[in-house]
Design goal:
It is built from eight helices and six strands, in the order H-H-H-E-E-H-H-H-E-E-E-H-E-H. By secondary structure, the chain is an alpha+beta fold. The chain has two domains: about 1-55 and about 100-140, no CATH class; about 55-100 and about 155-173, no CATH class. The chain is elongated. The chain starts with 6 loop residues before the first helix and ends with a helix.
């Protein structure tokens, strides 16, 4: 969905897109864009829902062999195999994402001077504080943005290879 930003914000978005293509171009402060999205552009944020996510560091808290015993996957550590680790990790990731209050939202941007881009918002929700934009970035495409955050967040267990899960698991053990 391409958002119709107010005229007074369009120059900031053009600057952000120019900075994306030319790092010598100054990067603008997008605080006023965030303020507008939270106040008047909320439909664009909701319409741009892409995926729930979890932070890798939070998932890693569950990737150790003792957790398999605690959750009745095995009786003894001697029974642990990589297949069991992978099955547990993938199930736990799916569960954590289904319970997550964190989400990625993507809004298409158009520029008068440059090719289109996307505004990517990482948002967190909790009952006490409501919604909070934890990150807002402009990127070439959703795929490029996902690549830039792949070491920090998980959008789904299908985004991780068996090798990535096992490497993380072995670091935890």
């Amino acid at each position: 969905m391409t958002a119709k930003f107010p005229i007074e914000l369009r120059h900031l978005l053009d600057q952000a897109i120019c900075n994306l293509w030319d790092k010598n171009y100054p990067r603008p402060d997008l605080t006023s864009v965030c303020d507008w999205l939270e106040r008047d552009g909320w439909d664009y944020v909701l319409g741009g829902f892409f995926s729930s996510y979890i932070y890798i560091k939070n998932a890693n808290d569950y990737f150790f062999d003792g957790m398999l015993i605690e959750n009745d996957y095995v009786v003894d550590e001697a029974d642990v195999t990589d297949e069991i680790r992978l099955a547990f990790a993938r199930q736990k990731i799916n569960y954590l994402i289904s319970e997550s209050g964190d989400s990625l939202h993507v809004i298409e941007l158009e520029s008068e001077k440059m090719p289109p881009a996307v505004l990517c918002i990482l948002m967190s929700y909790n009952l006490q504080d409501g919604d909070d934009f934890t990150s807002i970035d402009v990127d070439f495409s959703v795929e490029d943005y996902l690549e830039s955050i792949r070491d920090d967040v998980i959008l789904g267990q299908e985004y991780l290879s068996d090798q990535q899960i096992l490497q993380t698991w072995l670091k935890q053990s």
